[in-house]
Automatic annotation (TrEMBL):
InterPro entries: Bac_surfAg_D15 (IPR000184), BamA/TamA_POTRA (IPR010827), D15-like (IPR039910). Its main location: membrane. Transmembrane segments: none annotated. Keywords: Cell outer membrane, Membrane, Signal, Transmembrane. This is BamA/TamA family outer membrane protein. It comes from the Bacteria. It is found in: Membrane. Gene3D superfamilies: membrane protein fhac, membrane protein fhac: a member of the omp85/tpsb transporter family.
Length: 770
């Protein structure tokens, strides 16, 4: 397809007139590598080569008999970018001016145009000349307080220094920093224009002197520092007129007036995140922080913070709110395709905002999904492989609801308390049914801008899982009693979870940083203590019971470490290491339940394998009967230990592809899951051993396309199996069979029916893998 688009776009010049030329190549020569990519941004888009895909689409709908139609279809594809000498001269001048800001005051840019068969190549030849260096810097402040703030907060880290190359961007950065510092320290009237820069380039050699002057306002000898006097809160009612008069509350101590035209809000939950308060000096940072936290409450369509000068150094603050609709409803649907089966999910979410007057949000979610297996006999209803119904309730409160005084504040993010309950009813054809209920209490807050904490002190869950009687009998006859015990059972769980995330907000940035996410999940210790004190009864397997149901006892932890490195422009390298371990003990010591186990493969892991089709260890499903291979899909390839690593190189392919940016990625994934204990009946070869686990690491590689529309990313990855640990010795390197795969696949199918072997696994998803 790409070759077809390439040749079709190359033939596009036949549609233009003889006196026109299609721009097919642009380059800049003579520019230092560090500035080349930035220089290219100053070339006019009107003469940059077209996207081949968009030009092909445009030509498809707008040409006939070798010419363009008189009446053309708009907003389809991209019109051809034709040679325009005015745009070439403008681009050359823009490049020259850019180089001037980087210290190349005598730079020259001469464009060369070559036209051949109505195709134009443009080469901007640049003679940078010698860069100018800063000899001396003279800084003058007309206000002593401004100089004191500059010396304290900016001068120690400034990039504008003697004996460095002139760069206007560094001066703009210094001016912006001074603006922010002044505004954060009460100087409400301070403007960026008060800082002026003069350049003396009359010196011999390529040297300049800088004269930086920070002036006072024209009507004063100093910059005025403003203090907050009174605070006004007004909640507007632009919907149905309220029959009651607006509620008015005055707090004389805080010098605050609260007016609620909707009669539905309480002022204290809102005032908590209004950081510009009476008696404080004005601060731009506090103003922005108020905007951020009040919008994060998700209860207001509009938030405005306005200031009124009361006298020479006093400000009144007016917070103006427009609430969002109190109730909302959203319906979602999706089509699913997995392992040759297809189905759909449909969901409905009802929202009730401001349920208690403090911008709290109540959500009620209903979801139903069904998956059809065409291999099952009978009509449509008989082809249902599984169906899944879920109902959930979430209550989000924008503050920490605890019985003792604690105030993490909202300086870096809105603290939240979340109560949630979920009920799931799941049935899989002739295999398994599950009834699952979970409720939890969660607290989340930011310690700093890049340190996030999530603490769930209470996670209460109940599950009633039932295997189909015939399926259970087959499992028992085949010796899979542990699978029966793991899935055909009831249990209670009462535990605690904690998650810490470092640099989560930087994941969409292109800078160099490290990301870390760590989770700890512990369950059953409190119930074990209660059962020991109360001497509660146990079942035949020795498991203690609460209300006649055994309880879980385990400890689980998982880490996700990533290293992000920017390689210039839109090129990025990412390395990820993702280990985890789950240890059942005490009342649940023999086997970890399905829901708490690790799995490998899938669109965010080792992408050459489908999810839950890799491992554990060297386990090979050939040992199962054909019926068990069919019915145990996604149930037998789990583990208590997980080790995964990924390396991915990301780059830009097209800046404009159907209105989005098309990025590419090449990647290598490796890892597996393992069992903690050896069990030849359950997963022969699946246990973790230090002297063998490296030889049981799966390796996959591949290529991906990412279509970035700025709002979301659509991702398509193709993963290729390189090393498969289910085989032994040199046979693990399955890549050697890729170009002669027919015989290999047929042999595999005969020994693994109905499983088939695929060298390439396609993954379609929304968002980046990591």
């Amino acid at each position: 397809m790409l070759l077809t688009l390439f040749f079709a776009s190359c033939r596009s010049s036949k549609y233009i007139d003889d006196d026109q030329a299609l721009v097919t190549k642009i380059q800049i020569s003579g520019v230092s590598p560090a500035l080349k990519e930035s220089s290219e941004t100053y070339i006019s888009n009107q003469i940059k080569p077209n996207s081949r895909v968009n030009l092909f689409i445009y030509n498809t709908f707008n040409t006939t008999k070798g010419r363009y139609k008189t009446k053309k279809i708009r907003n389809v594809g991209e019109p051809p970018h034709l040679l325009d000498s005015a745009m070439v001269d403008l681009s050359a001048n823009q490049i020259r001016r850019f180089l001037f800001t980087k210290g190349y005051f005598n730079a020259k840019v001469n464009p060369e145009i070559t036209v051949n068969k109505k195709r134009a190549h443009i080469n901007f030849n640049v003679d940078e000349g010698n860069a100018y260096q800063i000899r001396n810097i003279e800084r003058k402040f007309e206000d002593g307080d401004a100089k004191w703030l500059f010396d304290r907060d900016i001068l120690p880290k400034t990039k504008v220094k003697p004996n460095t190359q002139y760069d206007a961007a560094k001066l703009l950065e210094e001016r912006e920093k001074l603006y922010v510092v002044m505004r954060n320290n009460g100087y409400y009237d301070y403007l960026r224009q008060y800082m002026r820069v003069g350049i003396d380039s009359t010196l011999t050699g390529n040297l300049i002197d800088l004269k930086i002057n920070v002036e006072n306002p024209s009507d004063s000898t100093i910059h005025k520092k403003y203090q907050i006097d009174s605070v006004y809160m007004t909640i507007r009612n632009y919907g149905a007129m309220s029959k009651k008069p607006a509620r008015r509350i005055t707090d004389s101590v805080k010098r605050l007036l609260f007016v609620d035209e909707t009669n539905s809000f309480r002022w204290k939950p809102l005032e908590r995140y209004m950081y510009l308060r009476s008696g404080n000096y004005y601060s731009l940072a506090e103003e922005n922080k108020s905007y951020d936290r009040l919008y994060e409450m998700n209860g207001f369509r509009s938030v405005k913070v306005q200031f009124v000068k009361k006298d020479s150094n006093k400000l009144d603050v007016h917070y103006d709110f427009v609430p969002r609709p109190r109730m909302g409803n959203q319906i979602e649907g999706e089509y699913t395709f997995s392992s040759g089966m297809s189905g759909f999910n449909i969901g409905n979410t009802f929202s009730q905002r401001n349920i208690f007057g403090g911008s709290e949000q109540l959500e009620v979610k209903l979801r139903y999904g069904v998956l059809f297996d065409p291999r099952l006999a009978g009509g449509l209803s008989s082809k249902i492989f599984n169906n899944d119904f879920q109902a959930g309730v979430n209550l989000v409160i924008p503050r920490l609801m605890v019985p003792f005084h604690i105030n993490p504040g909202g300086k870096f993010g809105l603290p939240k308390t979340t109560y949630s309950m979920t009920l799931q009813l799941f049935d899989q054809d002739r295999t398994y049914s599950n009834r699952y209920f979970i409720t939890s209490l969660n607290y989340s807050w930011y310690e700093t801008e890049n340190k996030y904490h999530s603490f769930t002190p209470i996670v209460l869950e109940y599950r009633d899982g039932r295997l189909d009687s015939n399926f259970r009998k087959n499992l028992e006859q085949e010796g899979y009693q542990l699978y029966v015990r793991s899935n055909d059972r009831q249990y209670f769980g009462l535990g605690t979870q904690y998650t810490f995330i470092l640099n989560g907000k930087k994941l969409t940035s292109k800078e160099d940083f490290q990301y870390f996410r760590g989770t700890v999940d512990i369950s059953g210790n409190v119930l074990d203590l209660i059962s020991s004190i109360a001497k509660l009864p146990a079942n035949a397997d020795g498991e203690k019971k609460i209300f006649g149901v055994p309880f879980l006892q385990y400890a689980k932890t998982e880490f996700d470490y990533r290293l992000y490195r920017n390689l210039g422009g839109n090129r990025q390298f990412v390395f990820r290491f993702n280990p985890g371990i789950a240890i059942p003990y005490g009342n649940n010591s023999k086997l970890l339940i399905f829901e708490k186990s690790f799995y490998s493969g899938g669109m965010n892991g080792i992408r050459a394998w489908q999810a839950r089709t890799l491992g554990p260890g060297a386990y090979n499903r050939q040992n199962l009967s054909e019926d068990l291979r069919l019915n145990l899909r996604n149930l037998d390839q789990l583990g208590e230990i997980k080790l995964e690593a990924n390396a991915e190189y990301r780059f830009r392919i097209l800046n404009n592809f159907l209105g989005a940016k098309m990025n590419g990625a090449t990647f290598v994934d490796m890892g597996n899951v393992w069992r903690l204990k050896k069990d030849d009946d359950l997963n022969p070869g699946g246990e973790f051993k230090f002297n063998k686990f490296l030889g049981q690491v799966a390796i996959g590689t591949g290529f991906g396309l990412r279509f970035d529309s700025d709002y979301f990313v659509i991702r398509l990855d193709a993963g290729l199996k390189v090393k498969d640990p289910q085989f032994s010795g040199s046979n693990q390197w399955v890549i050697k069979n890729f170009f002669d795969s027919k015989e290999f696949k047929e042999q595999y199918y005969q020994t693994h029916k109905p499983d088939r072997y695929n060298f390439i696994q396609y993954n379609f998803g929304i968002g980046m893998p990591f």
